[in-house]
Amino acid sequence: MGLLTNLKDSISKVTDRLFSDSEPKRIGIYGPPNAGKTTLANRIAIDWAGDTVGPESHIPHETRRARRKENVTIERNSQTVTIDVVDTPGVTTKVDYKEFLDHDMEKEDAVRRSREATEGVAEAMHWLREDVDGVIYVLDSTADPFTQVNTMLIGIIESRELPVLIFANKTDLEGSNVQRVANAFPQHETVPLSALEGNNMDEVYDKIAEYFG
Amino acid sequence: MPEATPTNEDGVRIDLISGARMDGLASMEKIRLILDSVREGKIVILEAGLSPDEESRLIEVTMSEINPDGFSGIEIETYPSTQAANQSFLDRLMGRQSTKKLTVIGPANQIETLHKDETLISALVSHK
């Protein structure tokens, strides 16, 4: 029974993809907190739609709701790809409001931010299981990529057979190590960039068109 | 269930749960078993780990149970799954994914990962 259900689901997935080419693909921007996901989403949205997706901050969990920028059309050489960019909250397995107190926040505000952050992470996981057609996985290239959250999320993305690009962000910072990111996930293509400075965005857009077009 | 039980109240209890025991449970039963144990302050070691979908749901349910001054979430560590890349197309098509990976889960405020690589997980477990 389980075998038949799995087969039915697999066939359904394939047919869904075959017949939904006219709809913009929803590309989820995923990654741990503070990797620069919103900075990247804003960069893409400004470059191709003239608008931002959401506010950026150095305080973790600034993005606490998934935000979608619809119909972002990216043109590369002769190829045009229209996507919905979905900026998601940073995924984690723990949220402690006391961490926000270090950012000059009152307890009440920290507790509220913590509650919203947990709701946001749950929402991001739901989007990943149900509502995205591809994933841009953003990592801070100055940080250790070999974390459990990264391992789990890449595993979840692979299990759903979603196309995924790994973006090694923050290459403008001292201590950036793109090779370390590439070594952590050798089964996927890693693209270096600085979303903040706009470095290497040509290659970023080439890859988006190639993977999600 | 094989387990290490504290000899006094100051100890930390570790439950080692066999793959066979988990095989008999539905996904939500597994997640409930893990979270109930972790919320009681136990460290749970799964012989065979969870599927990617179950890991996704574990994160989601964990988030829904976090509360200020109480439960702040989980720390979880597994070795990277090396089997996934070697699976046949048919296995992937049929959803037959290998999930055999030793998994350690504990309360975020009691377990801290000191070091992790492909072959070693080193963690510090403390009292509440």
TrEMBL record, chain A:
Classification via SUPFAM superfamilies: P-loop containing nucleoside triphosphate hydrolases
Top-level taxon in the UniProt lineage: Archaea
GO BP terms: tRNA methylation; tRNA wobble uridine modification
InterPro entries referenced in this protein's UniProt entry, alphabetically: GTP-bd (IPR006073), P-loop_NTPase (IPR027417), Small_GTP-bd (IPR005225)
Transmembrane segments annotated in the record for this chain: none
Domain G stretches: 26-170
GO molecular function annotations of the record: GTP binding
GO CC, one annotated term: cytoplasm
One Pfam family per UniProt: MMR_HSR1
NCBIfam families: small_GTP
Listed name of the protein: GTP-binding protein
Protein's organism: Natronocalculus amylovorans
Taxonomic lineage from the root: Archaea, Methanobacteriati, Methanobacteriota, Stenosarchaea group, Halobacteria
UniProtKB/TrEMBL annotation, chain B:
UniProt-listed Pfam families: OapB
Database matches in InterPro entries: OapB-like
Entry protein name: DUF2073 domain-containing protein
Protein species of origin: Natronocalculus amylovorans
